[in-house]
Amino acid sequence: MTEYSIIPRPASVCCLTGSFECPGIPNIAFDSVSDFNNEARVFADQMRDFGQMAGSAVIKLIKDDMPLEAYRLKIDADGVSIRAATGAGAYHGLQTLRQLILSCYDNGVLKIPCGVIEDYPRFPWRGYMLDCSRNFFSTNFIKRMIDALSLHHVNIFHWHLTDDQGWRLPVNGLPKLTETGAFRREYRHEDRLTGGFYTEDDIRDIVTFAAARHIDVVPEIDFPGHASAILAAYPSLGCTGGPYHVEDRFGVFHDVLCAGNDAVFDFAASVFDSVVRLFPSQFVHIGGDEVPSTRWAKCPKCGQRVAKLGLSNHAGLQSWMTSRFASMLKEYGKTVLAWDEVLENTEKFPLPENLIVMSWRGREGGSKAALMGHRVIMTPNNEGCYLDYKNADELEEPGRLSVNTLFQSWSLNLIGQNLNNDAAQFVLGGQGNLWTELIYAGKIAEYMTFPRICALAEAFWSNDKSKNFEEFKLRLAVHQARLDKLGILQYREI
Predict the structure, then answer these.
(1) Which of 229, 318, 373, 387 has the fewest other C-beta atoms within 10 Å?
(2) Statement: residue 401 has pLDDT above 90
(3) Where exactly does CATH 3.20.20.80 map onto the chain?
């Protein structure tokens, strides 16, 4: 596998004698790409700034019968061919070729050893989450990250758009969400505001850019907790009526959406209208994590709701709200995702059957959900998936709360020993998450993401048989030089 040093590791590599040589970057034979015009265009755009495109057309894209995301990349002395059944497969093949070109192009000449790479993914969900609530990132930076993620066959961009520290989504009829909820006091500078929000055009631009790279943009709108930005804009939606402010602190706060106020669901309906209009994804994430019931326990409206629903405690209000939100989105044909806390207090209101659980507090929640027959995304915070944790246990390294090393990310096993074969089929894949409480700049976000996302991408894509960390590090050394050429700031083990 080290001959080409591809990441994530392909299913099979067969090296042949000889090499393919070309002055400049090879063009695509457009007469053969009627099914893959989008993929050809994106690849040409990616390569155009890297080197001089050659005059001869030597890359052939061929439609063939094979699994959906699979591809077959053949390199011989006469040229390069990629066979795939779908645009996604063709794009993955082109990204593998892009890696080879980044390594094998020097002084205007491309020289790639001959061989055949056959490849396909292990899991359908290979995700990365960027938190744009705690700190706001530009559309250009987000597109840059999406393009780099696609180089590694990541196919989900989970966009965390709302939290206590900022609301980033425009919603028709609710202007205060962005006028008030998008800005907070700058940390340690109370006289300054920081933040921002994305316009509808910004969102469409990012969604279109990602779709061209076969990445699905999944929005997260946090309900009913992490709601300080909502309540600052519309205080009547809280249990106490305020006053509230967009938080400049980080943590878990007692003020959440009032479960006894029907206006909360009118508010959610307006939000979902905008979400559905702007995001074509089948999936919508509704948060559901870290929802204290402190305010609910003291709120007369919530008390009346508890009595009416026959709940044994106020914490059970969350499962009722989760069911309501999921039902609302189901009417739009959407599938709901939520963090693993939604598994709790569900005696009266079980989780909706099609809800997907994202397991972050270790893998226990995901295992429980899978055994219950729920689809699961594994993203355990303590097993290499939380990219806001330090890369190494060193004072000089940025990060917070804990440490997740490159080895932990590479070692991630999405299907634990406690899952039988029947339950294992409900594990859709995994995800790396970058929370940004302390990450205020794009370059820091890059440093925290790479190369751990490279290791996670391998855990999501590649078969876990015959894994060898030393072999991975040999490939990674070559691969990090490619990322250097793309200008990506990375952590390196000393």
Answers:
(1) 373
(2) yes
(3) 125-485
Cα distances (angstroms) measured from residue 351 to each of 233, 341, 418: 30, 11, 22
18 burial (CB, 10 Å; 0-12 / 13-18 / 19+) is exposed
Q: How far apart are CA 367 and CA 419, in angstroms?
A: 7
DSSP bridge partners of 431: 127
Residue 118: is it exposed, middle or buried by C-beta count within 10 angstroms (0-12/13-18/19+)? middle
Q: How far apart are CA 322 and CA 213, in angstroms?
A: 32
Count how many residues are written for the chain.
494
Distance between CA 104 and CA 53 in Å, rounded?
Answer: 14
72: left (phi over 0), alpha (psi -120 to 50) or beta: beta
The structure tokens 């393919």 sit at 20
Tokens of 472: 């991975």
**Beta-bridge mates of residue 21:** 111
d(CA 93, CA 197): 35
The distance from CA 279 to its chain's CA centroid, rounded to whole angstroms, is 15
- Give ranges for CATH 3.30.379.10 in the chain: 12-119
From the number of C-beta atoms within 10 Å of its C-beta (0-12, 13-18, 19+), residue 493 rates as exposed
Answer yes or no: is pLDDT of 32 > 60: no
Judged against a pLDDT cut of 90, whether residue 465 lies above it is answered with no
Per-position DSSP letters for 245-311, written without gaps between them: ---SS-S--S--B-TT-THHHHHHHHHHHHHHHH---SEEEEE--S---HHHHH-HHHHHHHHHHT-
Q: Please state, in angstroms and as integers, the Cα–Cα distance from residue 38 to each residue in 61, 81, 151, 217, 362, following that order.
A: 12, 17, 16, 18, 39
Give CA angle at 51 (49, 53), nearest 5°. Answer: 100
CATH architecture, domain defined by 125-485: Alpha-Beta Barrel (3.20)
Which residues contact residue 352 at a Cβ distance below 8 angstroms, ignoring those fewer than 6 apart? 322, 323, 326, 327, 330, 336
Model-level pTM greater than 0.90? Answer: yes
Q: Check whether 1 has a pLDDT greater than 50.
A: no
The domain made up of 12-119 has a fold known as: Chitobiase; domain 2 (3.30.379)
**Token pair for residue 131?**
């938190």
